[in-house]
Write a structure and sequence with these properties.
By secondary structure, the chain is α+β, with helices and mostly antiparallel strands. About 30% of the residues lie in helices and about 25% in strands. The structure holds zinc ion.
Length: about 375
């Protein structure tokens, strides 16, 4: 059996398969990865969640006792954006140590680095309980794929002891992320001629009032690592022509939450605040995620990253879909991947070739540690408390 064992070539191969979301078309990439995973010894299962939409769940079981180490990543990417690219976004071109392409950093590089680490660490995986890989679609539009895994494969976390989310972090281990609650507010009115507004009921005025109330709503929760919760109204639409009273209007608001906030409670509070004139509905709902930095496995992960990152100070990332996969669970999670966070979602997205190799080494150490706790045994103190 021959398959790609070079992390650069594998990342380029994944970048060449377009998975822009929306519309989301993970099928080619998911099928290719499922074949690759089978070739390297995994049992792989495709889990469809819509036309052309796929997740992929794969296990490589070992003979050891204990639980599986899980890795999750998303196969979809954001669109290219309006600005022209200076490189072909789907060629996997390398210039001056940078591998360019949509998804190069977020997060096909993370998937490639973990798969190559698995190939290189095959013997230690065989001697451990094993590895489970959860590859999702639909992450960039609110984690639909991860939610489908939860619903259609309820046992996906059975026997999982820890989870790595391979989002771009420059191989630095992050301990959590804020939650995201995206709400749509819709108002109905009554159409009338623009010269006789008293005969109608203006839907735009209703959402303007609603947005004004939202802006005055205090999000008081604070978190020592994440800071405060936030709110941003991102879109507004309504009305068809200037000389009509609009009978429909809507807006969308993006709330980012911190541990201690309950999304259902927040939604109810906002619905009460806006009253009957505006109907609120959620179109993405991802709870905040946090693993205590004192968790023993995280301490060992910190030790695995220390050769590349030095002393680890606990930090959080803005967003990933890890929490959709583990929100009801006590499974510790680290967000850790080779991509460059500052190029995510941007024109000329790239990941660094040296960080790809570094990522394979970091993941490899975590796999070895999972089998025998070796990093823990040799661990020099690498942990510092944030101030
Ligand atoms: Zn991502």
């Amino acid at each position: 059996m021959t398959y790609m064992t070079d992390v650069v070539e594998l990342t380029r191969q994944l970048v060449r398969m377009e998975t822009i979301n929306p519309p989301g078309q993970e099928e080619e990439c998911a099928r290719w990865l499922s074949g690759f995973l089978r070739d390297i010894g995994f049992k792989a299962e495709l889990i469809p969640f819509g036309p052309g939409r796929y997740n992929l769940v794969a296990d490589l079981r070992g003979t050891g006792a204990g639980k599986l180490l899980a890795f999750s990543g998303h196969m979809d990417t954001v669109p290219l954006g309006r600005a022209a690219w200076n490189v072909d976004p789907f060629a996997g071109e390398i210039r001056e140590g940078r591998l360019y392409g949509r998804g190069a950093t977020d997060m096909k590089s993370g998937i490639a680095a973990f798969l190559v680490a698995c190939i290189q660490s095959r013997d230690v995986i065989d001697a451990s309980a094993g590895v489970r890989i959860l590859l999702t679609g639909g992450e960039e539009t609110g984690c639909d794929g991860a939610r489908a895994i939860r619903e259609r494969l309820p046992g996906y976390l059975d026997n999982v002891g820890a989870l790595i989310v391979g989002e771009p972090t420059q191989n630095y281990p992050f301990v959590g992320h804020k939650g995201a609650l995206w709400l749509r507010g819709a108002a109905q009115g009554i159409a009338a001629h623009g010269a006789m507004p008293e005969a109608g009921d203006n839907a735009i005025y209703k959402i303007v009032d609603a947005i004004d109330r939202l802006r005055k709503f205090a999000l008081v929760h604070q978190h020592p690592l994440m800071g405060g919760a936030s709110m941003n109204v991102g879109t507004v639409s309504g009305g068809l022509n200037v000389n009509s009273v609009p009978d429909a209007a809507r807006f969308e608001v993006d709330l980012r939450t911190v541990p201690g906030m309950e999304h259902a409670k927040l939604r109810n509070e906002l619905a009460t605040l806006l009253g009957d004139d505006v109907q609120l509905s959620a179109f993405a709902d991802v709870p905040p995620l946090e693993t205590s930095e004192t968790h023993p496995w995280l301490q060992r992960v910190f030790a695995c990253c220390a050769p590349e990152c030095g002393q680890i100070i606990p930090k959080v990332v803005p967003y990933s879909d890890g929490s959709v996969l583990v929100s009801d669970s006590s499974v510790p999670v680290v967000i850790l991947g080779p991509g460059e966070p500052q190029t995510m979602h941007k024109t000329d997205e790239y990941c660094r070739v040296d960080r790809l190799y570094e990522g394979v080494r970091v993941y490899g150490r975590i796999l070895h540690d999972w089998q025998d706790g070796s990093v823990n045994a040799s661990g020099a103190p690498v942990f510092a408390v944030a101030n």
